[in-house]
Design the sequence.
């Protein structure tokens, strides 16, 4: 099936960069952006991020071949409900949500054609958000994880994968449970830790001094705490169990180091630090 | 007093960059590097990091106006013991250790002229270490914290401050207790968290996959876990109490977020995340 019309719901960093990357790569079809207000829509068109923009999601998706939903996790349901009555049976619905099971639950509860649903998650992001952060090279060499349903048509998965590859990404498929568990550890937990770390410094009486005495390492370590607070709130709430489990797993590792420090156990401390350093050096793909 | 001769003990990132920055800034005196082996000494001289190099610390410090000790925390004592018998009464002894009280204890236990001791700590670093990491601009706009003793001569503090300013740094003085407590929160704790985070991923069965599914945010977040494991072990052991306290303070903040996530308390989660984001944006000097 040829995808001649794409509708991107949400013109933030993720949706805007998807559209922008496709256009830069020479995608010949039409891309329509669904935005919250006309001013933003005009901006997206002026900057060449999309071909057209509208605030009317139902109108936009009624005549499209593929919809990418890139809105905060807890706004997905509302958009799906608006789309459901007008979707054509061939239209592919994919998303860019950071947690997959809740999107699948929402899709099952609202959409008429589950065989056209291809849940997805591009593992790419920046601390900046919004149209100003749009970057046509955001997905270059980044992994795009798809978690198809048992019902999903193979051609729908292929179409979504081909578009992400055109946008520069490397596509992999896995189960939603596996995705949500892995991302809780590799992404959601680090964000929670960074937010907790900055909040701890901010709660100290000598807060300004605390930030003055921090250097580049701290800046890098806490950069992800500049992420959108609503988006990360939604991720924590929709991936509640896996994030909670990852926090507890982390707490156990931290407690072991704390105990080794309290006991003056030089060997254990050095072993853990060296093991971490070596694992990071050896396995981290994007250094 | 004019500082015509400087002796830098330890030719790693910190000591080498100090020397390199001074030479680049036009320092007219002679700088001698004390190294562990001749090969490294030759390298340091060939690269213009120092004017001369030697493995004999006693010989090097006997005729110098100022000594900068930049060796791991737990190697300080041994170097001070070697220096003590030959130090002249006018020679200033400063250091670059990340924890100040233990250096002061070592200095009190070994050195003959405490009025010439100026404990110091440049808040600058990189994940890389060794002579290859030397960078003459490392200290530009970075804070250098000095924690003089009650006995320290004012002219000794001034001399050390002037050299660091020549190297590009911004000098501040504070008490060693205050320093060790603040740095436990702003530097030592983030490193412990990054090591614990990477160690947790590395301990998962699907370790390689974990690292593959991590993106730029995780890379930045854990970059400091590539720091030298011996150096960070020593910091944790020599600042044991303050680091332990900072870990516990962090654990309480993390537990509060964990509880809010488990309870589905959207308001609390968003408030903490937003507060952290705003505090970082407002107060972090080096963004």
Sequence:
């Amino acid at each position: 099936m040829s995808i001649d019309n794409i509708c991107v719901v949400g013109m933030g960093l993720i949706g805007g960069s998807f559209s922008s990357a496709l256009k830069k790569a020479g995608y010949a079809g039409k891309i329509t952006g669904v935005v919250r207000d006309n001013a933003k829509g005009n901006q997206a068109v002026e900057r060449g991020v999309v071909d057209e923009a509208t605030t009317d999601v139902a109108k936009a998706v009624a005549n499209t071949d593929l919809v990418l939903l890139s809105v905060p996790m807890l706004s997905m349901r509302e958009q799906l409900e608006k789309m459901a009555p007008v979707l054509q049976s061939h239209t592919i619905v994919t998303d860019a949500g950071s947690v997959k099971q809740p999107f699948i639950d929402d899709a099952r509860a609202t959409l008429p054609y589950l065989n056209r649903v291809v849940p997805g998650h591009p593992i790419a992001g920046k601390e900046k958000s919004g149209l100003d952060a749009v970057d046509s090279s955001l997905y270059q060499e980044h992994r795009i994880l798809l978690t198809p349903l048992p019902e999903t048509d193979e051609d729908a998965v292929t179409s979504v994968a081909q578009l992400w590859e055109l946008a520069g990404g490397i596509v992999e498929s896995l189960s939603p449970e596996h995705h949500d568990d892995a991302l809780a550890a590799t992404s959601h937990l680090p964000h929670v830790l960074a937010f907790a770390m900055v909040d701890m410094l901010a709660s100290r009486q000598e807060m300004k001094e605390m930030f003055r005495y921090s250097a580049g390492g701290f800046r890098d370590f806490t950069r992800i705490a500049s992420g959108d607070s609503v988006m990360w709130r939604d991720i924590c709430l929709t991936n509640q169990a896996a994030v909670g489990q990852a926090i507890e797993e982390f707490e156990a590792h931290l407690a072991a180091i704390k105990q080794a420090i309290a006991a003056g156990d030089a060997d254990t401390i050095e072993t853990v630090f060296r093991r971490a350093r070596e694992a990071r050096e050896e396995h981290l793909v994007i250094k």
Notes: The mean pLDDT of chain B is 94. The longest strand of chain B covers residues 5-9. Residues 178-283 of chain B form a domain with the 6-phosphogluconate dehydrogenase C-terminal fold fold (CATH 1.10.3660.10). Residues 146 and 173 of chain B are 5 Å apart (CA to CA).
